[in-house]
Structures are given as C-alpha cells and as structure tokens.
C-alpha cells in the first residue's frame, strides 16, 4: 500500500477565516497538489477517492490535549456535509458530536495517576449513499481503565 498523506496543523487558539463555507467550495473538486495544505484538502481527497472508486476512506486525527482534534473532526464533517449534501438532516455534525461533552467529563476526571487529561479515543463513521451523507455514528472507547 502507498503511504498516506500527513497534514500537520497547529491550533491557533482563536478563530481564523480559513474554515468558512467559501473556503470549502474553493477546495471542492480541486486536486490536492493544486491547493494549500488544509483539512479541507484531505477531506476532498478522501471524498474524491470514495466517489471515484467506491471504497471506504479514513482520516486519522491525532494530537496532544488541546491540539484541536475535535475541531479538526468537525471541520472535516462540515466539509462532507457541505460538498456532498446531507440526506434528511443538515445538522448531522452537531448531532454526531452531541455526546462529546458527557464523555469528556468522564475522560477528564481526576485519578491517582493524572489530574486532568482525556483518556478516550473516538471513532466516527460517516455513512454515504452515492455522494450524500446519510448518517454517522461515534464510538468512544476508554484508553485508561482507572477512569471507570
């Protein structure tokens, strides 16, 4: 298998105008090498490969606490629902991530080993019918048993 594409992003800790709908449309339909590195470029490439070859795609979002993983996942989902459309409900992104605060509360609980750090991993699966988003599920798994 060919190696995947890696994007290193830095959380600026403030809102920037690089995630607006106009930027989504600027990346839509473009080849990755024609655009600046961006989560929308990765999402477009995954979307294009899924549509072209009908094969599942994965985006792995990793980083330290506060690095912006949740926001990056939201931006990717926003890209898919904007470009591919959303059958039935346009608030898919909000619904999928609605359980996040509750799960984070458990993950951020103080333990004897760690004062405050999330110990959950998340797997988000977005369903498509043709090119439209049809739904999504989020699976949260515990990385540290002492949180239970």
TrEMBL record:
It holds the Pfam family Myosin_head. ATP binds at residues 63-70. GO terms for molecular function: actin filament binding; ATP binding; microfilament motor activity. InterPro entries: Kinesin_motor_dom_sf (IPR036961), Myosin_head_motor_dom-like (IPR001609), P-loop_NTPase (IPR027417). Residues 1-148 form the Myosin motor domain. GO terms for cellular component: cytoplasm; membrane; myosin complex. Keywords: Actin-binding, ATP-binding, Motor protein, Myosin, Nucleotide-binding. One of its GO terms (biological process) is actin filament organization. Signal peptide: none annotated. Belongs to the TRAFAC class myosin-kinesin ATPase superfamily. Myosin family. This is MYO5B protein.
